[in-house]
Design brief:
- The chain has about 475 residues and is α/β, with parallel strands linked by helices.
- It has two domains: about 180 residues, no CATH class; about 250 residues, Alpha/Beta hydrolase fold, catalytic domain (Rossmann fold, 3-Layer(aba) Sandwich).
- Helices cover about 35% and strands about 15% of the residues.
- Helix 4 runs parallel beside helix 15, helix 5 crosses helix 6 and helix 8 packs antiparallel against helix 10.
- The radius of gyration is 22 Å and the shape is globular.
- GO terms for molecular function: hydrolase activity.
- It comes from Marinobacter panjinensis.
């Protein structure tokens, strides 16, 4: 089944072409994958593989970009928490004194730190509202949200100093900071306004509002680990070593799904395949529109499989393993009680427990993997696509539950978008969300959002229609239509 393996690799590579910036988590090393076989237990040393990595910024000429009419573009290099980072910024002529910090998604495992210029909808909208925007390359690649937060915050606090140093321009200090980001950048934007972040960050910024879009968070790595372990067991490969998973994942898919021209369609071919789909639906947010289309999306389904799901150190961002499934029962039924079959299957998958102290609170900065805990006191507006199989909608449900627990529920508005891609928003959806956040922050007018915790409402065939706007989007022609 080598053709199937090649297809998965191609799917992961193709992922970067989807509408918005994305995460495309890299495969775990064989050593990392072996934890389920008894390797890596009892680690106590807080030494990360990530600490030995070295990155480099682009040449100054490669940082340049063209400003929109009526605005001025700036770029340069500054010192981040892991080393040099680059910055980009754009100021409108009618600048209102506010800056929106934009946080980009996962950039892979390369050594080069590429500049960030946000999408056209974001830039157009921010500048039209009178805001400047600024973005960091971050001083590290990989899934380093710690660097993303600290480097973005330092840039926010010292931006006007860098512009005076590099461009001899004298802007006044900003009077307001907002933060927005997508995917891993959404994780960054959400974590940046958390109370713990404000208390522990080396460079704390009092953001007055946040726009985390299609956000990942710490539980993302539980999902990746869960799904791949369930695939392995249902496909009949539970006896095979997990560290060899990428060697037989193509054969596993052949045992579960129909194929077309050597490629999996992700349409179940048997009871095991259907059980896998039902388990995935329950793990990613329950019965909802566009789940089927997302499940059959070869790019993002392939991206989940391509991670291997086994690297609980988040490719060396943590020193020890964080993956834990000790509270999970893998279910394909929807009754109130677990069935005996579900309990037996869960036992066959096996129990994996996170190592103690894998992601501790630190006294020199935020955690290595900053947490999204729902503990904030500023307006936060999110959007998430219902069919996102890579960074699933369930993150929004967890976010709502956490916010309600911390008394932050009134400050959180969430929107469901009917699209089968990761971060697959139209320009209109993106622009509307930014305008609504800015209006909420500055006028106190709270925008509308969707209920995310009521299973009956989420399962309604018209769920997500309220804030889905197909203008300027692509690939939605064959989706179930809103009335």
């Amino acid at each position: 089944m080598m053709l199937s393996k090649n297809l998965l690799a191609m799917a992961c590579a193709t992922a970067v072409a989807v509408t918005a910036p994305t995460i495309a988590l890299a495969m775990a090393s064989d050593q990392d994958k072996a934890r389920g076989q008894g390797i890596g237990k009892g680690l106590t040393e807080h030494v990360r593989e990530h600490d030995s990595r070295v990155f480099r910024v682009q040449e100054n000429a490669d940082l340049a970009f063209t400003a929109f009419t009526g605005a001025t573009a700036y770029w340069g290099v500054y010192e981040g928490i892991e080393g040099p980072a680059s910055y980009t910024a754009e100021f409108p002529q009618n600048w209102n004194g506010g800056v929106i910090m934009y946080t980009h998604g996962f950039r892979g495992r390369g050594q080069t730190l590429t500049r960030e210029v946000p999408n056209l909808a974001f830039r157009n909208t921010a500048l039209a509202l009178g805001y400047a925007w600024a973005a960091s390359s971050y001083s590290a690649n990989y899934y380093d949200v710690r660097a993303a937060i600290e480097d973005t915050n330092r840039l926010a606090l010292e931006l006007t100093d860098y512009l005076e140093r590099d461009w001899s321009v004298g802007y006044r200090d900003p009077g307001q900071y907002l933060i927005a980001g997508v995917s891993m950048g959404g994780h960054t934007a959400a974590a940046a306004v958390e109370r713990e972040t404000l208390e522990t960050a080396r460079y704390p910024v009092a953001y007055e509002g946040a726009l985390p879009l299609c956000q990942a968070e710490q539980n993302q790595f539980q999902w990746l680990g869960d799904y791949n372990r369930v695939v392995r067991e249902l496909a009949g490969f539970g006896h095979r070593p997990y560290e060899d998973y990428q060697e037989y994942v193509g054969e596993a898919l052949f045992n579960l799904f129909e194929f077309d021209g050597g490629a999996p369609t992700f349409v179940p071919q048997n009871e095991a395949g259907q059980r896998l789909k039902d388990i995935a639906m329950n793990l990613t947010g329950g019965d909802r529109p566009i789940f089927d289309e997302g499940f059959q999306n070869p790019v993002w389904h392939g991206a989940v499989l391509g991670t291997g799901g086994a690297d609980g150190t988040v490719t060396g961002i943590l020193a020890n393993e964080i993956y834990d499934n000790t509270d999970r029962i893998y279910r394909w039924t929807d009754g109130k009680r677990f069935t005996d079959q579900e309990r037996a299957f869960t036992a066959k998958v096996g129990r994996f427990q996170a190592e103690k102290g894998a992601n501790p609170v630190r006294d020199d900065s935020v955690r290595w993997l900053p947490l999204v805990q729902g503990d904030f006191d500023v307006p936060v507006l999110t959007m998430h696509t219902l069919g996102d199989f890579f960074v699933p909608f369930v993150h929004q449900q967890r976010y709502r539950e956490a916010a309600e627990t911390h008394g932050s529920g009134d400050m959180l508005v969430q929107r469901a978008i009917r699209d089968p891609n990761h971060c697959g928003f139209s320009g209109t959806e993106f622009s509307t969300a930014l305008v609504d956040l800015v209006t909420w922050v500055n006028s106190g007018i709270k925008p509308g959002g969707d209920e995310v915790l009521d299973p009956a409402e989420v399962a309604d065939e018209q769920y997500g229609c309220a804030y889905t706007n197909d203008e300027l989007s692509s690939g939605r022609d064959n989706l179930p239509q809103c009335e």
